[in-house]
Design a protein that fits this description.
Chain A is α/β, with parallel strands linked by helices. In chain A, 43% of the residues lie in helices and 22% in strands. In chain A, strands 1, 2, 3, 4, 5 and 6 form a 6-stranded mixed β-sheet that branches. Helices cover 61% and strands 10% of the residues of chain B. The longest helix of chain B has 33 residues. The chains are: A alpha/beta (158), B alpha+beta (572).
Chain lengths: 158, 572
Amino acid sequence: MNIAQLLSPERVSRASEISSKKRVLEVLSEMLAGSQPNLSGTEIFDSLIARERLGSTGLGHGVAIPHGRMAGVEHAVAALIKLDRGVDYDAPDREPVDLLFALLVPQESTDEHLQILATLARMFADPAALASLRSADDGEALLAEIRRWDNGADKGSP
Amino acid sequence: MELTNQIILLGSAVLLLSVLSSVISARVGAPILLVFLIIGMLLGEEGPGGVMFHDVQLAHLFGSLALAIILFDGGLRTPVKNFRVGLKPAVVLATLGVVLTAGITGIFAAWWLGLHWMEGLLLGAIVGSTDAAAVFSLLHGRGLELKQRVGATLEIESGSNDPMAIFLTIVFIELLITGPQNMGLVVLWEFIQQMGLGALIGIAGGFALVWIINRLDLAPGLYPLAALAGGLTVFGIASQVNGSGFLAIYLAGLVLGNRPLQASQNINRFHDGIARLSQIGMFLMLGLLVTPSALVDVAVDALLIAGVLILLARPLAVWLSLLPFHFPWREQGFIAWVGLRGAVPIILALFPMLAGLEQAGMLFNIVFFVVLISLVVQGWTVAPAARLLRLEVPPTTHVVQRVELDIPGQQEMELVGYRLADNTPVVQEKWTSFVLPKSVRVVAHLRDKQLLESLELLDLRAGDYLYLMAAPDDLPDLDRLFVPRAAPKRLSEQTFFGEFVLNGDARLGDLSLAYGLTLPEGVAEQTVEEYIRKTLHTAPVVGDRASLAGVELVVREMEGARITRVGLKLSR
């Protein structure tokens, strides 16, 4: 699977002025809403928050993958944000989160949804990927790192 | 003069050799106790050592003493929190389980060897107890942890089934000598007396010891000795009034290990060492005592009896004893398989000799051989069995440099040291936004042998040393930051617990909405915790799993008996 395909330059950014979980989810929701003519940022935020209520989507090691499944979404889209300072995210290791990858999937595609999430979780457990994302200075560099990982991962799998 | 020096040299050389051999045995996975036993046999009358040792009385004295110390140490290091899931099954295994194992093995032995049925049961009782210390040292040596339910059950069982086996052995010897009149009544009365008095004196003695030690003002080196002397006094008092001294000293250790205790770290370290010394000494001595060539005569009999014990009696006893507890089959299988026999049966085999029973010599040789087989076959396969049955959980703590600080009147604090490397998470992932747990303070940060001025930890590099003050509860969190991921892939947190985390009180209906899962009838209103409990039929522990509509739920964190966090595993 190609992770970069889920993103676009408008949906990848680095932010310095965000200091709460709620705020970072709002920003991600707005970024995602840009690609969804039928949905508002608030609706997307509600969907992400509904999932957070079941348990934090933090993976540990400063990473979170907030995700939601919504009617009106045509195909899976994602947004990536890197924070200069981590925010408290109630993650399983109790550490603040500074890398967030938000994913929105259509209501119909359930198995695909699970597969994308599993792939993302694998990528964000890779120390090398985390190091390179953390060294990226802006949205462009972040996207380039994701592409690089996509290529590497494709070569790695048979 | 000359002889004294020679004995000292020989004794210390053997001890040194035994200690060093533990390194090799850990590497090849051989049970260390087997190595000690073999060293003892090599030293003995038929090996190159040529030492003649046949003093059964002396062997019995040292053996009992060593056993008492080992049980005391076992009690000291058994945390009471393990009792939640392990106590009841372990107690049934240690009582009913031992009776069943002894009965089945004994009846077979009586039939095969053509003994009186009571002599057969005596043999069964002698080999009735298990040794879990060997199991744990094997697993810990490889940085592996067992699921709590299995680990706790095995640990408590092995601590408490020795008194039962000892009791049965003594009762059968008495009955063989006096004849089986009123057998049921005698056994029952003895049981109540031994176990009742043992438990009472052990627990009361333990509390008394805690009280005394906490009020003493001694040189630091004397606290462990006070504890040891106190423990052995409890053992002696209980035995004198015809209670079970072994049960008493185990329980006294348990009380001591789980109450706030002055100098507890000193006491624990000392007892770790003295228990190991006891183990080495006991096995060396038992190796010396046996006449290896005599084992050949009983080889076939012993093989058959060991086969019945390992493949029939223990599995059947475990299965019946654990019926009320609904253990998953993998866990039952593992508990059945690691019924490892250690030194206790060999010590117990000395009892008939002391009592002057006719068949004592043959019994001793058979028991010795059975223990050898058990150590080789079961001891060697413990780690692979745990892996095969998928009973390991990701280790929570790792070996780092730790100093427990004994601050009077304070909660427990430790000074922990970490050496950062290229593959330490904070370094490798360029992870700078981490925070330390609330109670942790940075004490020192060293680079190139220099103390750094700043303790902010903003710039961490490979090769740095970090020293932190922390409460023991925070160590797993610190390890996640500063210890490289060493667990094999199958035990990495993501592979084991799954990609995401759910709260125990999340409703399944909401879960199915978030992921589009097709739930089975009538579970939508249940919480994740309720669903796991219903699927398991037994008290949950970390690592328990339940399938749900194509995904897997894995118990990840517990607070007491409550499931607080559950892993959600999407990929198979």
